[in-house]
Amino acid sequence: MSQNKFPSLREVHMKKILVTGGLGYIGSHTVVALQEAGYEVFIIDNLSNTSIDVLQGITEITNTPPSFVRLDLRIKSDVEKFFQTHKDIDGIIHFAASKAVGESVENPLLYYENNINSLVYLLQECKAHSISNFIFSSSCTVYGEPDVLPINEEAPIKKAISPYGNTKQISEEIINDVCKVSSLNAIALRYFNPIGAHESALIGELPVGVPQNLVPYITQTAAGVRKELSIFGDDYNTPDGSCIRDYIHVVDLAKAHVKAVERLINAENSAKFKVFNVGTGKGNSVLEVVTAFEEISGKKLNYKIVKRRPGDVVAVFADTKKANDELGWKAVHNLKESLASAWKWEKKVRGI
Ligand code: WQD
């Protein structure tokens, strides 16, 4: 509160958003977008898949150091203690989760414990402290292999092909069930393929170990960190034989969260629980991504075609009409802009 007896306009109207996993790739970009939109942000993160340095990156971009507490949401007593000492939270954006498809197949219990228990403990605190605005980080993985493209939110949810995807499906159901019997209002954002980095190159994707995802593997190959990219199959039923995805700039994705927060805080959610696809609405194949990267970087990418990766869907890209119309949100970056921002970040990280 400011010194004089009347709070400043900013203090009166600043809403406080708790961002779990807020030092992660999408989380950190969302924190920047929230601060730029005038929200006060509180981050909790267990630092299992990121670095505390990200806090500095956020602060350099916005000149507003977000509050931060290192906390593991799997420890129920710690979660309870946090909410006992941190009041006046107007909304929660829940990113904190394990998200590697392959790892989830090898270690399902890690995924069910982390992704499900953490969500349940958070929702219990929402109930205990009357926090009624909740945004969940979901994924197009819930759709499995689409029958119709582009895919919309009414498409059938198919049996998950990985424990990771299953945790996203189960989490959506848990949230929906809680909304039905409590004051909770929630939005699940189903991400397609987030890529790229903030234009400042002060924050970006920091894969731990060998990147599982295409674009960081491409930029690390171009930077000489990896010898060559393996393209997992070019014998699919697509125009050039490689898989098709919807690659969305992480800053566009971050801004979708701000729109979702505004919708909940302004009580404009037309139902207790809503889901939105967050993609560009355009599909690009792996080989098209490689070609686009070579064009923006001016570098020839070293790659080889190898056998298919188990669990890959052939093609998936979003019908974004619902998010455009109801959230008033639309992705604005195209593939080359997104790849250029990823390459700028990689060069910054590697000092090249
Ligand atoms: C994209 C395409 C690969 C790496 C996953 C999760 C999803 C979300 C994003 C968390 C596929 C091909 C990849 C490589 C390749 N994660 N590829 N060589 O699998 O579409 O989505 O990450 O929210 O939930 O499922 O992304 O980047 O791994 O793969 O050829 O070294 O690139 O086969 O066709 P994916 P991806």
Question: What can you see in these coordinates?
Answer:
- The protein has 352 residues and is an alpha/beta fold.
- The chain has a single domain (14-350), classed as 3-Layer(aba) Sandwich (Rossmann fold), CATH 3.40.50.720.
- It is 40% helix and 16% strand.
- The protein has twelve helices and 13 strands.
- The strands form four sheets. It has a seven-stranded parallel sheet, sandwiched between helices. Strands 7-10 form a two-stranded parallel ribbon.
- The longest helix is centred in the middle third of the chain and has 21 residues, at 108-128.
- The structure holds UDP-4-deoxy-4-formamido-beta-L-arabinopyranose (WQD).
- Residues 99, 101, 139, 141, 191, 193, 212-214, 217, 229-232, 243, 245, 286, 309, 312 line the site of UDP-4-deoxy-4-formamido-beta-L-arabinopyranose.
Using brief descriptors, characterize the structure shown.
single chain, 352 residues, alpha/beta, Rossmann fold, seven-stranded parallel sheet, two-stranded parallel ribbon, 12 helices, globular
